[in-house]
Amino acid sequence: MGYNDDWENLMNSVFGPGGRMRAGGVPAGKGKEEAKPAAKPARPATRTEAPDLNKALLEQQKTLDKLLKKQNEALRAQDVSTKQALEDSRQLLRDMEADGLLARGAADTPPEHLGSFEGLAAEVKQTVLGQDAYVDALVRAMRRPFVLGMEGQKARNVILLWGPSGTGRHFALEETARRMAARGLLQSDQMARMDLALYADPGAEKLFLQDLYAALNAPGEMVLFDHYESCCPAFLKTLADLAVKGAAPLASRYLVNREGILVDAGSALAAGAVSRITPRGKYLIFFSHKGREEMAGLLGAGFVAALGDVCSTQPFTQESLQALAARLLNELARRCARQLQLTLTAGEDVRDYVVSQHTGKLGAAALSGCCERIFRALSEYCLRQDSFQPGKAALDVRDGALRFSINGSEPAPLADLLPAAWDGGTEQVKRELDALVGLDEVKQYVFGLADNVQVQKRRAAAGLKTASLSMHMIFTGNPGTGKTTIARLVARYLKAIGALRGGQLVEVSRGDLVGRYTGHTAPLTNSVIESALGGVLFIDEAYSLYRGEQDSFGLEAIDTLVKGMEDHRDDLVVILAGYTREMQQFLSANSGLASRFPNQIEFPDYTADQLLDITVSLASARGYRLDDSCTFPLLGYYQRRQAADSRTAGNGRLARNTLEKAIYNQSRRLVAEPDAPLDLIQAGDLELDE
């Protein structure tokens, strides 16, 4: 019998039909005849009958209380069961999130937010700091097709996201997509990406179409395009057709193999051939550092008109960087408590130290990198303790350096907990530069680059704007004056001081940049530029690229080089080297060439004294020493050769060649003089051409 039946029977036992109370506690279920009153008028109850009635009511009240208690317990058990079922469901969803079957956050999304954009921008701003206007515009761009409607296979929306490096363009999109997927607004937060810089060569057409088809057919509802500025113009036309017309025709017919890859059909009559590509109803999202106007120059006004939304980030303000640093430090504190059992405390000085790590190139990533180094350092402290107990870790800043204290201990430099950071061999490069004979002007300029990098970091820490210094250079001078040697050291030095991420030196000449047939030069030059990104591209005898106005291949290489320098201004240093007079003529080949090389450094010819010093240095490096009797003959010889024609004499190469001849002659002499010192070069060993 259910609780409702118990309740009804109880009430019937107390109240009669019509709600009249039974005087003698008539049991429930008796007939109407038995419940009728006597024919005589009822008399008032006596004192003896009244206690019986009260006793009956008391008993019924006890029974009622028991039933109410039982019912409340059942309701509470049902509520606990419901809550447990809901938590079990959420845990199942979290497990599915961990397995990649659901977007992160889906399990904890409030029911009222499912299928809704309400509050989405505010939710994204919890993790994307300092870019409120950008987040609002981005959420509006993602919502637009839900308001305007979607047209079959056409692009859901075409969006341009642009702004300075390190301002969170990609991160904000990823957070927005993740939260949209958690709300059920997207089937998945997966994104297909294409780096359009990989398709600069017209010969990469089939690869481009295959990758584009794969991206449009990949899981997820977004296709991202980076570096459209470096893409072959013919391929940009295909992307423009996708955005403007909703489909891009293919020049030839393709088949789709079992792996979903486009394969050239080879015949227009092939059954099931693909003759066009469509956006498949996806968001097409382009990233750039440039805005709408620059995009129109490459993709056309029609493409720009087809853009549904243009969203731009702004450089971080000091306040937004401070807010971001504070949030990262809070996350660091939670991580330390969870993994290291350390309660972390830090003041505004630590927050400002984290902010000072911000640079134009790395952006917000520099702040998170700083917090990661702090965690690694504290982890190292815990690892060094045999029996470390949970405690308190306090951070502060003294003289520009982070310090830590555990459980009130004396503060110590945090950097001491980590392996000594490799400085890229800065001191070694300095020593090698200092060891070079002469070239004082060149050395001053190279060392000045480090001063500029340091000052820009200080400006960033103070919340001031930073200015990137153009480091493209032209080395002019005669052969053997140290241009290539200095270029190699400059590449290493720029890496060491943090001005370049790579530090490699790519040495090329005309033959590495200029193609052998039409359409070959630009891809060849672009591939060389790609190999040098993050380092230095050194072009020796650069003037050979320009052989007059009729040299169309050489002019194409120069134009491609200028464009590459512009596209990768913060990730590439180009050094041109050559004779002084010829280099001046070369700079006139392209109107934008000279302006991109503000640093023109002349390498003077070596004097006789300097050539003697070079000879002594080269000999020492090889384990030899020059007898004093060699000094005057060598000085006289070098003076005559340099005065006659320093351009053909070879400068440093003259010293090296002279030493090599002396070593050869010394070895022949030592055969005849077995007791003579093996490392000493005498005047008779010199072979000085008159």
TrEMBL record:
Gene3D superfamilies given in the database record: 1.10.8.60, P-loop containing nucleotide triphosphate hydrolases
Organism, as annotated: Candidatus Faecalibacterium faecigallinarum
UniProt protein name: AAA family ATPase
PANTHER family xref list: AAA-TYPE ATPASE FAMILY PROTEIN / ANKYRIN REPEAT FAMILY PROTEIN (PTHR43392), AAA-TYPE ATPASE FAMILY PROTEIN _ ANKYRIN REPEAT FAMILY PROTEIN (PTHR43392:SF2)
UniProt entry tagged with the keyword Nucleotide-binding: yes
Listed GO MF terms: ATP binding; ATP hydrolysis activity
Family membership: Belongs to the CbxX/CfxQ family.
Domain AAA+ ATPase: 469-607
Low complexity bias: start-end ranges: 38-48
